[in-house]
Structure formats: C-alpha cells, structure tokens
Amino acid sequence: MSKTISIHSFRGGTGKSNTTANLAVLLARTGSRVGVVDTDIHSPGIHVVFSRSPQSFTHSLNDYQWGRCRIEQAAYDVTSTTIGSANPDDGPGGPRIFLIPSSIKTGEIARILREGYDVSLLNDGFNELTRALALDYLLIDTHPGVNEETLLSIAISDAFVLILRPDNQDFQGTAVTVELARKLNVQKILVVLNKVPSAMDRDLLRLQVEDAYRAPVVGILPLCQEMAELASSGLFVNRFPDHPLTRELTKVAEQLRNL
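User: That's the sequence. What structure does it adopt?
Assistant: Structure tokens below.
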C-alpha cells in the first residue's frame, strides 16, 4: 500500500527541501518507487537539489492546476541521476524517483498568488499520480507556514514530518502546526530536528521536544559545514555516503518505511 508523507516546516530555512530530496533517494535505494511533489508553488526550489534546470521541464504542477496536462505528464524520472540507472531486471515496477516540479516562471508564480489554486483538484491529482506511477511513497514538499495547501497536505497524509531547528521561533510555530494536525486526525506526526550544533545535549533536546509536542523525534540532524558548502547543488547522501548526517537521514528513512 502506498504512503503519502508531507514534509513541512513552520518557517523557511530549516532544510526542508534538502531533507525531502535526500529521504527520497534513501527510500528509492530500498527498491521503492518514490514521487516528490514540490507544492511550494510560491517559491519552488527542490528541483535545484535534484540538479535539474527549469528549462528541462515541459510541464509543471501549475500546468496540471490550469488544465494544461495530466499530472503524470508533469512527473520527470530522475532515477538515473539520483540512484543510478535502473536495473533492467527490475522491470517497469523497479525502483524509481519521479519529480513533479512547480513553475519558477515569474508570471506563473504571480498568477498563483493572484488566483490561488484548486485544493480539491490537487488532492485528485495526488491520487492519480500514485496510481499512474505505481508509487510506494509520495513525498510532498510543502510551503512553509500554515495555508490552504498545508492543511490539505496534513489532511491526506499517512504521516506528517515536521522539520525544525533548535530555535525558539521554530519551537513556537511548530506547536501551532502540531495542534492543527491533531485536529485533522493525522495519526502519525514525526519530528526531525535539523542543524543541531554539536555542543547541544541531544538527549535533553529530544526529551524537551517530545514532551512539548507529544510526538516522537525520529532524527537529530547535525549542523555541518559540508551541507552548507554543497549549497543545494546536489544530493548530500550521494556526495557524502559515510557522513554522520547521512547515517542519521538513513535512520529517518527507516522510520518512514516502518510506518
């Protein structure tokens, strides 16, 4: 059975898109078919982590919203540049990663800001995408904060992964999101702490966060220079396979597989 997982942060700059992209790679490496949807329509960017230029896309999530294409026509197979060429023995059902980008064209972003988008159509699209591509996982990279799209993502998710930094603004804002998720009856709320300085007491931090949100912390990702230097120009788990950050992301991926 496929799983829909929304990955969200209350504020920008938490590393949400990088975390989403790297988790997609780790899940696909286990033999899964993974879709990654960039629903941050106001400020799209996850395609950069996958090293894809906007010019390489014929269609986007915006085109699906405006009736220009079916949603699967906006899905791009990025398997060969993320986990390597697919093994012919795997057949059509083998591991894959599909990226569904949002448009980075200023006119189309302005149209979304002006007109909004059809939330029910987006829900239908996610279901069709999962069916058409035979996905095991659909990862939704959400827009930061709380808006209509976030509420939809929360409502349809099998799991809701919250990314936050050890920062008081993140703590307070995330508490609002957790409360909303509970009101929408999300069964699985998971927390990932990102950019955690090495000097912080990780055990104490885990206890504080789990006590505050009544949700498990499934990953504590270290603040590291290598990620900063990579500057979203590639997939961290591929560039640094033995790094402590990669090992911690692998633990998070395992938690998602065990949902």
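The first strand starts at residue 3 and ends at 8.
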